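sorry to bug you again but im stuck and you know this stuff better than me. what follows is a protein written twice so to speak, once as letters and once as structure tokens for the fold. mainly i need to know what kind of three dimensional shape the backbone takes. anything you notice is useful, everything is just below:
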Amino acid sequence: MRLDKFLKVSRVIKRRTVANEACAGSHVSVNSKVVKPSYDVKPGDVVEVTFGERTLKFRVVSVEEHTKKENASQMYEVL
């Protein structure tokens, strides 16, 4: 699954266009490398998202095309 879509489906970022812009603007890194929105996310990847001065670091647990709001947080674990 594409990184921008994963960020939207897992509800780390609310909208896919915002997730796409964050990836394109070098605010998202996977396994300590800045990546493009089209990066293929796999379970076990460590993703780091920078929101202004705050940083969210998490490990991808599962990749699902669709999920309910209450199950979205089970797709990753915060480090």
